Amino acid sequence: MGNGAPGSVSTAARGGAALLRLAANKALLVALVYLLLGMVWILWSDRVVEALFEDAVQLTRAQTWKGWLYVAATAVLLYAVLYRLLRDEATHRLRQQRQREDLDLLNQFRESIIDNANIWLNVLDAQARITVWNKAAEQISGYRREEVIGGDAVWEWLYPDPDYRADIARRVRAILDEGAEVEGFETHIRCKDGQVKTMAWNQRRFFDERGQVGSIAIGQDITERKRLQEELERMAVHDPLTGLYNRREFELLAARRFADCVEAGHPYSLLWVDIDEFKAVNDRFGHQVGDEVLCGVAGVLQAVVGGQGIAARYGGDELVVALPAVALPEARALGEIVRQRVQAARLLADCDADAALTVSIGAAQRDAAMHDLMALASAADAAMYRAKAGGRNRVCGPA
C-alpha cells in the first residue's frame, strides 16, 4: 500500500534484467573474439610453418610445437582472465561479507538504541500492525512486546473509545497511504493498569529496501508536563487560597461579559460580599482560622452562584460575584441565600460554639449611567457599606 511502492519494485527488476543482458553480451563478445583469433592463428601459423619447413619430419615437429605454443598461450590467457574474474569475485564476496557484518553491527546498534531509548518508539507495517515495540513503549503502556508484535489489538487497548480510536486510525492511514506527517500530535491513552496518560507523537511514513511501506512513531509521555502546565495556568487566574478567580482575571472576564450585556441590552448585576468583623476573627483566633473562614465563605459563594456568575476574591476578605443577564431582584435573592448559608454553616463553631460568623452583601444592577464595570462595582461596594451601617448580616441594594 502507499504510492510509489510498486514502481520501486518494477524499477529494480528492470535494472537487474538489464545487467544480466549486459553480462551475456560481454561473454558472447569475448567468445567471438577468441574464436576469431584462433582461426587467424591456425591459418597464419600453418602457412608460415609450411613455408619454413619442406621436410615432412621437421614439418610435423613444427606443427606439434606450434600446437603446444597455442595451448600454452591460451592457457596463460585463460589463467589471466580467470584469475581476474575469481579475484574480483573473491573481492566482491569479501566486501559483501564485510557489509553484512557491518549491517549486523548496525542493526544491533540500532536495535540497542531503539530498545534503550527513553522515548516510546514503535514501527507499523502497511496494515498498521506492530513490528517494533521498544522498552519505553512497554514501560509507558504496560503492554509487553510479546502481546503486541504482529497484531493490531493494542489499538483497542490503548484507545477503548471506538469514536476516538477511529479518529486515530484515520490519521494513521493518512500517514501510511498519503505520506502525511504529524508533529506534536497529542492523544490520551489508557494503560494496562488503567491509568490515562497524555502522549505527544511525531510520526512519518518510510519505505524499506523492498519498497514496502511502513511508519515509525516516536511518542513522549507528557502527562506530568501537562498537569504542571494546567496547574500553572490555573494558578495564574485563580486565588491560591480560596480557589476563586483572582482580581485580574475577574476584571477581564466580567468586563467582557459586561460589554456583551450592554450591546444586547441585557441586565447585569453584581454582588459585593464582605465578612463581618473579619479583623476580629484574625485577632482572636489567628490567621489560620481566618483563612479557613475565608475559604468557607468562598465555598458557599461558589456553590450558590458559581453556575450563574463569575465569583472572585477581590482583595482581603472582600469577595465579588458578577451576574451577567441577571436583574437586581434575582441578584438580591441569590445574595440572601449566600447570607443565610454562611450563617447556618457556623464556620467558627470549632473555635467558639457561641461565635457567629456573618456577611454583609451589597447588590447593584447596571443602569444607563454605568458605562463600565468599575461604575457598577462602586455601586455594589456602596450598597455593601449600607448593609454594614444597617447592622451587618444583611443584603442591601442601591440607595
UniProtKB/TrEMBL annotation:
Residues 183-234 form the PAC domain. It catalyses: 2 GTP = 3',3'-c-di-GMP + 2 diphosphate. GO terms for molecular function: diguanylate cyclase activity. PROSITE patterns: GGDEF, PAC, PAS. Residues 266-399 form the GGDEF domain. InterPro entries: Diguanylate_Cyclase, GGDEF_dom, Nucleotide_cyclase, PAS, PAS-assoc_C, PAS-like_dom_sf, PAS_4, Rev_trsase/Diguanyl_cyclase. SMART domains: GGDEF, PAS. It holds the Pfam family PAS_4. It comes from the Bacteria. The keyword Transmembrane helix applies. CDD domains: GGDEF (cd01949), PAS (cd00130). The chain crosses the membrane at residues 27-44, 67-86. The keyword Protein biosynthesis does not apply. Keywords: Membrane, Transmembrane, Transmembrane helix. GO terms for biological process: cell adhesion involved in single-species biofilm formation; negative regulation of bacterial-type flagellum-dependent cell motility. This is diguanylate cyclase. It comes from Thermomonas haemolytica. The lineage of its organism: Bacteria, Pseudomonadati, Pseudomonadota, Gammaproteobacteria, Lysobacterales.
